[in-house]
Structures are given as C-alpha cells and as structure tokens.
C-alpha cells in the first residue's frame, strides 16, 4: 500500500496538538491509527488498576473522535510491540511509523530498539515531542548537567518557554488501508472484573473532550482563586487535569496557549503558580531521565541505611484503607480508593504520615499510589514520594514532618473534607474534627461516636513518632549524600 503511515498512539490520546499525527498525515494517502497494549513492556511498572480503567475509557473516546473524522482506532496487543508493528507494516505496506516520545527508562530503551530494528528493515521512524514543554536534556545547568533543585531548573525553563502555535485537529483523516482489522476494546481486559469503579465513573470523564471541559472549567472559573484554593481539599480549587495530562488527552502546550488566548499574564499570579505546577511535572521527567534508578532507590544514598520500622502489614493496611485514626490522612486514602485521586496537599500529609510517623518505606506508599491513582505517573509519583520522604532531589528537609492536625485545621478548617470521606465523624464539632481522640467523652456521646468501634483510635502517637523519626534521621544524616 503506497504512502501509508502508521500513527502509533501511546500516552498521547488526542487529535489536537499532536505532532506525531501531523507528521503521519504529511503525504499519506492511508493512515493507520494504532494502539498496542503491551503492559509487560513496562515491567515492573505496568499500569495499575485505576490507570487501566482510565485507559479503557480514553481509548473508547479516541476511537469515537477518529470515527467522526473518517477513520478508527486499530487495537492490538502482544508482549512485543516491535513484532506487532512489523505485522502491521507487512499487512499495510506502510513505509513510515510516527510516535510521540515517552521518557520513562524502559520506554526509552524499547523505542530505541524498535527504531533500530525498523530502520534496518527499510522503514522510516519519526519520534516527536508531544507530551512535555521541554524534553529531558533541553534544560541543563551551566556545566551541562542535570538540575537537582526545582527553583533553579524552573527559572531557566520559564525563560525558554516554547512558542505556542497549536497544531489544529484535522478536518478529515485519510482512510484505513482496505480490510485492516483490529481487536475489540473489551479484548484488552482493562475494565475491572469486580465492579469497584462507580466512584471513578462519577468523578471523571476520560478523553480529549473531557480534558477540555475540565480545562475550560478551571481556567474560566477557578484559576482566579488558584493561589489560595489549590491547598484546600474542602474546595474544588485545583485543576484536576493531572490524569488528562498523563494520558496525553491535553498537552501542556495547549494549556499554555489557552492561558495566552485569555490574555492572562504568565508572569503574575495566579497563572505563575499554575505554570509552576506544570513545571514540577517537567522537572519530574527531567529527574527520572537522569536518575533512572529512583523509582526504587533513594537519590540520597544515605537513606539506603535508614532504619525503617518493621511492620507485619497491619499498619500499612490501616493506612491503605484509611483506618489510621488520623482523620485527614484517612479522608485522603478513602478519597483515593473511591475516586482514584487525592488532593495534592493531602497526598503530602498522607505520605509524611506513612514515612515519618509510621516510618514505613516510601516505596510501599509509591506502589499503593501507583495502583490506585488514575493519574499514576512514574516520574511524578517518584518525585513526590522521595520529596516527602526527604531522600530525593530538592527534597523537603527531613525535619519537615507534616502535622496532620495542624494541616487539617489550616486547610480544612470547617472539617468539610473530613466529614465527606469519614462520615462517622460528621457530628463532631469543628474543634475536634481533626483530633477526635481529644474530644471529651460527653461530646463523643452526643456525636454518637465510640472510638475503637465506629472510628479507630490513632495507630501511632504523633508526638512520639515524630521524635523517633528525627532520631532515625540523626543516625544517618552525617553519612555522605548521593
């Protein structure tokens, strides 16, 4: 088939501002929009259950968009993407394969291997940047090395923001090669066998159109309050765009362009704060590319000797299930289990409680987030957990141990967030909503609440565990850092 191009979709599940799509269309008389489901290639970080749920619905949405433009999505699966691509090339006679680059270490190695193999057999391969403002390696120190401090990285990056002409969605797509078929979406078995996903379906609309509805709602209604609102879990003050960005249903360039279209000054608040959050996403990918060991290994080598607590699984399970007896922590973990998402402020508090008050390894928390977050992203997840644990680049000082009582009283002052996710505490007055174990017995009785029966007592004392964490840090802090 002359002049057929393969567009290999990965985590760029959109038609707007898609440079791989634009490249594939150039001179092509036939287009093969292809998605290959090959989770084993991502081992040991194959997508978790919440990510698979999102992927199912995002692929369905992408197929509807393609069908509306005269094409459709071809689905395939296999343990080897190269073999699948070779079969599609043989079936269609396609001369070119286009994709937007991924930046996780396993993906980079896989794509390099595929490109070499396809080129050696006569195919042309084109990788483009469709997922980041800056690819790893574009923003470097004066010594041409990687940044390890976000503020310095972002100062250089923000001064080099790319131009913002956005690639438009095509008005029509070339036809598929004749008689080309693919798998039914159900064959990929991305949906849960036991229906636990009602809360996810109620909270999210995966796909490019859902991404843009969320973006417009945020930019037009909530951006103005972003500086204060982004730290309030009791308010809908954040953009909630992280899963849409992870799956490439909207690009950071599109968000940058949307700000400029609205005449918003990028150098002033609140746009500067929102852009800084996009910058943290960029920085996370920058770090993962230069320090590929960090999903499992602390960047600060001193933490290899950190005296973590032994746990038979009881405390970890209590944390995972939102049964620690610490309301803000429990509310966050329950929100995560129900919706596949947790407010960023609460993520930090929950992670601090796990790694410092319970003194359990940060890798355990990272794995739980990986399986339960709809926005599970290896770079962001790694950066976030190492930052809170104190062992990563630009990490919070170890002595910065979040006090969940004070955090709750400051950012959920009326207890609305806790009452939503821990309804057994709903009748407590605001004074004790974040510390029910301190409430007088008569107040607990009036709230129809018995600690230990209706809601657990704290599984650890906050003051004592904080002191123990600082003592553990003292035991390793004088060793050489990485």
UniProtKB/TrEMBL annotation:
Coiled coil: none
Top EC class, one word: lyase
Keywords: Chromophore, FAD, Flavoprotein, Lyase
Domain of life: Bacteria
Known EC number: 4.1.99.3
Entries under InterPro entries matching the protein: Crypto/Photolyase_FAD-like_sf (IPR036134), Crypto/Photolyase_N_sf (IPR036155), Cryptochr/Photolyase_FAD-bd (IPR005101), Cryptochrome/DNA_photolyase_1 (IPR002081), DNA_photolyase_1_CS_C (IPR018394), DNA_photolyase_N (IPR006050), Rossmann-like_a/b/a_fold (IPR014729)
UniProt xrefs under PROSITE patterns: DNA_PHOTOLYASES_1_2, PHR_CRY_ALPHA_BETA
Domain named Photolyase/cryptochrome alpha/beta: residues: 3-133
Needed cofactors: (6R)-5,10-methylene-5,6,7,8-tetrahydrofolate; FAD
GO MF annotations in UniProt: deoxyribodipyrimidine photo-lyase activity
Family designation: Belongs to the DNA photolyase class-1 family. Belongs to the DNA photolyase family.
Stated name of the protein: Deoxyribodipyrimidine photo-lyase
